[in-house]
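=== RUN LOG ===
request id: a7f3
mode: sequence -> structure
chains: 1
length: 724
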Amino acid sequence: MTNTLQQALKEHFGFDSFKGHQEAIIRSLMAGRDVFVLMPTGGGKSLCYQLPALLLEGTAIVISPLIALMKNQVDAIRHYSDTDHVAHFLNSSLSKSSIDAVKNDIKEGHTKLLYVAPEQLTKEENIEFLRSVPISFYAVDEAHCISEWGHDFRPEYRNIRPIINVINVRPVIALTATATPKVQHDIQKNLGMTDAVVFKSSFNRENLYYEIRPKTPATDKEIIKFIRSHPGKSGIIYCLSRKSVEELAELLKVNGIKALPYHAGMDPATRSANQDAFLLEQIDVIVATIAFGMGIDKPDVRFVIHYDIPKSLEGYYQETGRAGRDGGEGICITFYSVKDLQKMEKFMQGKPVAEQEIGRQLLQETQGYAESSSCRRRSLLFYFGEQYQVENCQNCDNCLNPKKKVEAKDDLCAVLETVIALKEKFKADHVTDVLLGRTTANVRSYGHDELEVFGCESGADEKLLTAVIRQAIQTGYLDRDIENYGLLKITSKGKKFLNKPESFKVVEDSDYTEEPEPDLVKNAASGAADPELFSILKDLRRKVAKQLGLPPYVIFQDPSLEAMATTYPISVEELQNIPGVGQGKAKRYGQDFVNVIRRHVEDNEIDRPEDMKVRIIPDKNSTKQFIIKLIDRKIPLPEIAKAKGLEFSELLDDIEAIVFSGTKININYYINEIIDEDSQEELFDFFKENETDDLNRAYRELGDDFSEEEIRMAHIKFVSEMGN
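=== RESULT ===
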C-alpha cells in the first residue's frame, strides 16, 4: 500500500514523499479508523484528508468554519486536478442554481470533497440530500472550535456528531493546529471518537523568533520602523478591533508601506480582493483581525505582529504560526499592555458565568506568558503539553537577553505548604493573597487569615511569587486542575521536594505596570533605540525633575525618551513630533534635552534617520477633539461620557491619553465641585512624591478617603498643570 500511496501523492500533488505522520494518518483513515490529528500550522494537515478523499469511493464531507477558508481550500485542490468538479463548497454565499449544480456533481460521482459549514450541515434539505449519496468519511477541520476552552469556540460544532449519526455513520478525522490536553479531550468526547488513533506532532517551530514588547505611544512608529527595516518582506499585523485595522492600515499607507486592511465588516468583494493582493504579492502587509489567515497558505510570511495581545495562547500560537511556514525567517512580535488585558476582561461582562470564568483563565495564561522572563518557547510548548528541555532556545527575547536567576527554594516551600493548607481547592491568585497576608473578602470569608501560613511571605515581591508558582507548574512540583478552573494541586514531585528541599532558581517576571525598562525592548531583532543616549536622557530627566520638585514621568515618559533615542531630534520643533511631547512640553522642558541629543549626535558622528519621520494621518475619529471641545465649554464630565456612549472610566481613559500626549486641558470646573481645595492639595502632594504614573499605590493609600475616579481626575489635573 505504501508504494501505491506514494505514487498517488506524486500523481495528485507532485510530492515525492510524505511529511511527518502524514502517511500513517492516511493509512489509518483509509482502514476505516477514526483519527485525531494535532499538527501545527504548516505541517500539512489538509493533505491528510485530501489524498484519501481522492482515492476512496464516495464524497468526503469536510466541515470548515469560514467561507474564506473553504474557498481557499477548494481553489487549492482544483489547482492539482484537471477538473473543477473534484471539489465544491456549500455555504450561504451560493445561489440556488449554484447549489443545484454542486448537488448534481456529487450525484454524478464527480465530487470527491465537499466543504460545508456546520450551519449548512444541520439544514433539513442538506441532511436529506447527503443521506442519498455515498460518503467516504467526515473531516472536521479547525476542530478546536468544538471546545469552550478552544480559542475559537463555535457552538454549532457541538451538533456535528448528532448530524453525522442521522446522515450516515462513517469514519471521522478531526484536525487542529492548536489544542491543549483539555481541548483535545473535549474534541474527542464531543465527536464520539474516544477510541480514535491519535497523531501528535511537535509544536516546536525552531525558525520562529518570539518577542513581547511593551505597548507605548510610540508603538505605531516602532512598527513602521520595523517594516522599513525589512523591505519587500511579507507580513501580517493582527489587531483586535476593526477600527484599529482600518486606522493602522491607513497609517502604513501614508508612510509609503504597501498595506491593506482585512476584517469581517468589509464587503466580501473588497475583503477577497485584499486577500488576493496579499497572496499575489501586490502588497507587502495585510492588517487584519483574526478573521484573516485560517487556511491561508502563504509560505513566505516573514513577520507576524500582534498590535494587541491575543485573547488566548492557542490563538497566539496559530497566528504566529503563519510566519515562516517554508522554514525560513519568521519574526513574531507582540505589543502588550495590562490595560488591553483589562479591556478584554470588561468585554466579557454580561456573558454566562462559566464562559466568563473560562475566558478569564485563558487571559491569565496569556498574561503569564507575556510577563514571564523565562524562555518563550518552553512556556508555549508546555501550554500544549510538550516538554522543551533545551536551557536556552537562542531565538526569543528572553533567551537572547536573559535575566539573572534568583534562589527561590524557601519561597517554593512556602507556596507548596500553602497549597496543602488550602486543601488544594484554590487558584493561584488566592494562594498568593494568603502568602502575602492580604485580608481580602475571600480570604476572610474562608477564615484563611487564621491559618498558620497566612502572611508567611509577607513583604515578598508579588511578581517573584507569581514566577515561582508558574515555574513550579512547568517543572512538575504543582499541577493546575483545568477541569476546575485552574485550582492548584501539589504533585508527588512537589511532596518529595517539601521533604527534601533542593535549589530552585527562578527568573522574576517582567513588570508591565511600570514604565518599561529600556533593556526590555533592546535586542537584535527589534531595531531598538540608542541605549547609551537613552541612559543619558534618563539622567537628565532625573536632574530636571529634582530641580523642579516633580516626579520624572511628568517631564517626559519613558516611551518619549525611547523615541528621542531612536530619531535624534536636535531642535525644539523636531521634539514636538515625538509621541507624548507636544508643543507645551517641548517649549517648557525641551531645550536641555535637544542640546544633549545634538551633542551626542556630534560626538558619536551619528547619521540621523531622516527617513524615520513618520507621517501622521488626521484623526478620522473625532473623539479627542470632541472631548477637548466640550471640556473647553465646561460641560460636566458625566454628560460628555453619556454623549459619546462611554462609561465614566472609559472617558477618563481618553482624557488621560490626551494629557499624556502633551495636550494641556483644564477640568478644574468639574473637579472643584466634587473635591475641596485642601483635598486637592493633599492629592497633589502625594503625586509629587510618587515616582511613577502607576496609581495603584494611590488607590491603596488614599482609597479610604477618595474614590478611584477622584484620584484619577486629580492626577489628570496634576499632569496637565505640571507637565504640559
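=== NOTES ===
Residues 2-200 form a domain with the Rossmann fold fold (CATH 3.40.50.300).
The first helix runs from residue 2 to 13.
=== END ===
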